[in-house]
Design goal:
Shape: elongated
Distance between the termini: 75 Å
CATH class of the largest domain: Alpha Beta
Number of strands: 21
Number of helices: 19
Helix content: 40-55%
Structural class: alpha/beta
CATH superfamily of the largest domain: Histidine kinase-like ATPase, C-terminal domain
Strand order of the largest sheet: 2-1-3-4-5
Largest sheet: 5 strands, parallel
CATH architecture of the largest domain: 2-Layer Sandwich
Amino acid sequence: MSKILIIYNKEDNNQDSADLLKDVGYDVTVAFSQEEAFKAANELSPDIALVDTSCTEINISNICKKLKLHSKTNDIQIILLTSQDSPSEEVLVGADGYITKPFRDNILIATVNAHLRIKKLLDILYTNNSELAKSLYQLNVLYNTSSQLAGTLDKTKLVSIMNIGLEKSLNFSICLALIINNPEDATLIVNSLYPISGRLEQALKLRAIIGYKSLFENAKLPFELSIDNVKVEKNIKSEEKTYDLPVLEFDSLFSPISTSDQFFGTVEILRESEFSGEDSTCFQTVVKQVSLPLESAILYEEIKKTNIKLEKLEKLKSEFISIVSHELRTPLTSIKNSLDIMLTGKTGEITATQDNFLSIAKRNVDRLSGIINDLLDLSKIEAGKMEYRFKPLNILEPIQFVISTFESLAEKKSIKLSLNIADELPQMYGDINRIEQVLSNLLSNAIKFTPESGEIKISAKKVKADSIDTSLFYKDPSTINLKHQNRLKGDYVKISIEDSGIGINEIDIPKVFDKFQQIESSLSREVGGTGLGLPIAKQLIEAHRGEIWLESEPQKGSTFSFVLPVMMHHSTFLLELDNELQYSKYNHSNLALILLEEHFIDSAQAISSIIKDIAAGKINIIRKGDKCKFFTQDNNMQIIISNTDKVGANNVIKRLKKYLQDNTSQYLNHNLNLGISIYPEEAITSEELIEQAEKSVCKLSNHNKTN
């Protein structure tokens, strides 16, 4: 029944209008003052108000305004009863229509019916608009939630993002997320508008367990749960009041949280007002949204655990090899020394037959020592324990050293060693001992597989990255070649060792750098070997950010070539970053990379350079005892700090900013951009660390203007 409020003077004769409307079937209330009108409006929420403009107890514009603004009557239709044929605009403000007195009964009824229809249509429009606005808001929340879910592989964060999405879109009173990792690790995360009582907490735990078990009525439960082994984590928004057992009567929505092949938990939301069908759809959508990233997070966690196990196994393997090798070295050294003494005749005269057998024994001891050394080197490289001492060097020095070492061995087979070194080769940045080791392995191999009276050519020249073609070496150039060759940039020194030996079949070429790999041939069986020399050489060259490859044809010899980057600021910095990163990975420690970029607003007026003063030690931003390395070029600086996390890196920046604030006059007309990245929190490889630090510079716009 539609409700009508009539406001008029007591002494006026408007009762007939009230009676007429009652007879028609309307619920009519009469008010004789502004106070009575507001009270009736608040209690009854009428659909229409008939206001007599001649009523002296009310202010027409004021009552219209207040009725339209009140939450219970903001959709009311106000009709003025006026004696004026054309009421003034002031009188009509806030009203929806008017009837001129005197009026016939049918005019009053028709006008009221018309405005009731208008109100009904407006109510429908308002409801539709409200639902549309709600749907648009929920869609926006779903989109934002989806974006956030895609940005993490942390299961706890994923559940938190889901809960926030549900709260924003559905405005729940309580959310119960039961997360089950195993029977001993089950947590009920309670997000509540208000604190919950102790007995409600127990009831909610029981409710969550019952909800979980209801999903598997006719199937075996993934985990057996009891109320005692479910932990509770509470997130409370307000302390205004406390929820108790009546909350259990709230309307609710419930759903399992699962991936394609794994059950993860359940989620239920409760609120006092009833959920609509659209709310249920939104709820299910949010819960489904978390499934795919959750599957990725679980897979990522499993991979992470597997990698940790593999790392431990690799470490154990390397330690075992190291221990065994060291244990073998001591007796071998004693045997070798004893054989040397016996062969000199100091222990007594030996016969030709004895000399022959002792010489064979010595050669095998030397061979075994070489195998042990190779095993030790390989285990160090694979465990990340190989130490590199990088410094500027000229490639001619290690080449000449290795030639002098193997010259006598080549002479025994009448092998000619020829050298072709380009003039004025640029310096490189590397570990000279490791480069000598690579050259020794390659030259030793070349001598082994080159027949008597053969020739070995050693050459070195400067090349550009785009002229380096390793495609002949790789079996599938479209994949492997891109992976290796595309990382080569800038200038390199190329070293080649070409022999006139037996060569290698095309099918066997990709295997030459595999561990314990011996290419089958009569000569390879004759010369033997562990098959570790070339894999070690490959690892050492790649640790220098170079590349090594082979070109060969059967009976036409083989050419092993490798390139090492020319010494430049960027290549030097990358090698040192790789080295420090290797240390951090092996020791499971953090590493911070800080990039600084200085700009002068007016270089003519710049008194000092922040970058140069840091490099010179005038600005001390590193704590005493911290292991760090600085790399400076023009107005750019890279700082590598070992054993430092995000907090430590931020403290470095704070110290720098404080110094600049305390010395403002010295660094006028400067802008300083900075970026930070942390291993392993934000990046794993050197390139990723640099990229993340550069992104943070752009994103954070960390300008430090000291003027």
